[in-house]
Amino acid sequence: MYNAHHRSVVWRLLLPLGDLFSVAISFPIAFSLVLSLKGLSPLPLEHLTILNCFFIAVLELFFFRLAGLYRWVAFIEPKVMFMHLSAALLGSTLTYVLLRTLDAPPEDTGHSLIYLPGLLVIAGTTLVLTISFRLLIRQVQLSVLRTALVERVAYIGHSDRMKNVLEGLKKEGLTSVTVVGWIGNEIRVVDSASPSTGSREIGRVSDLRNVLESEKINRLIVDLRGVKEGDLERISEVCSDLMVGLMMIPWASDIWADRLGIRRLGGIPLMVIYDLPIGKLGNKIVKRAIDLIGSLVGLILSLPVMAVLAVLIKRESPGPVIYRQPRPGYCGKTFQIIKLRSMRLDANEGAGVTRAVADDPRRLKIGEFMRKWNLDELPQFWNVLKGEMSLVGPRPEILDLIAGLRGTIHGYNLRHLCKPGMTGWAAVNGLRGDTSLEDRVKYDLYYIDHWSLLLDLRILLLTLLPPKNAY
User: Other C-beta atoms within 10 Å of 247: how many?
Assistant: First the structure.
């Protein structure tokens, strides 16, 4: 929460200066490349001056800031830096082309496109130079400035989460980190973790000020699960008074931690989860459109297959061909899932509703084949068409088997933030049938957090393979 007084701000100063210089010199270098290569269109600037170069460089830095290139993560993670920088350069190039097109005379509307090869040369040159300068600044921070910046870290609360934070702090590598020890508290974090190897108890929370001063602590990390009510305010006041960097692990940080953010309402900061891609309106519209098209095509193509399977089911086991069962859907609302019946009519008598297992004696002969290839799921195209399900999403569980799971499996109910699917990320990874519900929930939450059209396509393609644990 507070920045320690020794915290280096060199990278914050050097990055914009390095970017400004990189973009500015990319123009004369790109001009030289274009002039030396035949077949490339001329560059858009008629007069190459120092003023022009730096003026455009300043505008370019605006795109860099919009792309988040001056955030901490874009400095310590080269992969993130490359992705954001590429996006910023693409956006600025397209913006320039658009402005040139709008500004061109009516009789010369295609004039700006003539410069596109030259603009690509500039963008490529800028990308290479900017990354090179940024990596140089990062290396200077790691090899030179790091030795002058020694962080003495203490922590409150033993937990696996705390161990991960301390390891991550050391691996970050931008400062020399010494974990001095832990500060005792009456509350013990209920966890399998023990104090970090080599650490020692350096004091108690009740004597925090003296502990921080005597041990020369620069940064204090607190696991909020290990802090008594009322202690946090005192910890915050002491750290702010001594200018000790304070970092806090929130009570719930293991679900969608990358989307944890701060929102201010009435001047008060609130910790919120935001920007789940599957919850955005535009993505919902696109996903629903694909569901409508896919379910219509699926119904039309599968009708002959379902007709043949219906005859085979009827011959082996007289009775209804279609099997309906209540399942939890979007936001927990119950709907009737539709399946081709793959078991005997008396399958649930006696022991009640149970999951299918390997060599389940309740299965029909044709049912074994259908379940192996997901053919019993074909009628669910109708559920998708009605809007009760999606082509891809968390598989809906059997209501009778999940009673009480909301309170026993961490984050279970969050899987209902999207519509259930005919297939899903957990299902294509073998988590179906009589498998771990905890693992299934982890895969479902990963899907919701990382949803994209490409992920949906990948899951649909994997569904065509023989599924695992399809009993």
Answer: 16
**Would residue 3 be called left, alpha or beta, if left means φ above 0 and alpha means ψ between -120 and 50 degrees?**
beta
DSSP secondary structure, 122-176, as one string: HHHHHHHHHHHHHHHHHHHHHHTGGGG-EEEEEEE---HHHHHHHHHHHHH-SSE
Contact call for residues 471 and 371 (beta carbons, < 8 A): yes
Over the chain, what is the mean pLDDT? 79
Cβ neighbours of 195 (radius 10 Å): 14
* Token pair listed for 306: 């379902």
Going by C-alpha positions, the residue among 176, 183, 180, 175 that lies closest to residue 208 is: 183
Long-range contacts of 281-289, Cβ-Cβ distance < 8 Å, separation of 24 or more: 283/451, 286/453, 287/390, 287/453, 287/456, 288/387
Q: Which residues of 133-155 are buried (b: 16+ CB within 10 A; e: fewer)?
A: bbeebbeebeeeebeebebbbbb
Residue 390 parent element (H or E): strand 390-392
Q: Which amino acid, residue 384?
A: V
Read off the amino acid at residue 39: G
Alpha-carbon distances, residue 118 vs 30, 40, 96, 365, 397 (angstroms): 8, 7, 12, 66, 56
**pLDDT, tens only, 195-247:** 554 568 888 888 899 999 998 898 899 988 878 777 888 898 898 888 888 88
Residue with tokens 């993505």: 283
Token pair recorded at residue 65:
């800031």
Q: How far, CA to CA in Å, does 88 sit from each of 57, 110, 127?
A: 13, 24, 10
At residue 328, φ and ψ (nearest 5 deg) are -75, 135
**Which amino acid type is present at position 382?**
W
> Which of 460, 166, 414, 86 is CA-nearest to residue 291?
460
How many Cβ atoms from other residues are within 10 Å of residue 161's Cβ? 20
What are the start-end ranges of the E strands in 266-328? 268-273, 322-328
Bridge partners, residue 418, by sequence: none
Tell me the per-residue pLDDT of 101-119, one tens digit each, with 9 for 90 and over: 665 555 544 444 446 666 7
For 51, the token pair is: 């003023």
From 266, 230, 235, select the one nearest 248 (Cα to Cα): 235
**Rg from Cα positions in the chain:** 30
Query: pTM for the full model?
Result: 0.60
Asked if residue 225 lies in contact with residue 157, where contact means CB atoms within 8 angstroms, the answer is yes
- Structural domains in the chain, CATH included, are 10-143 (no CATH), 149-251 (3.40.50.20), 279-463 (no CATH)
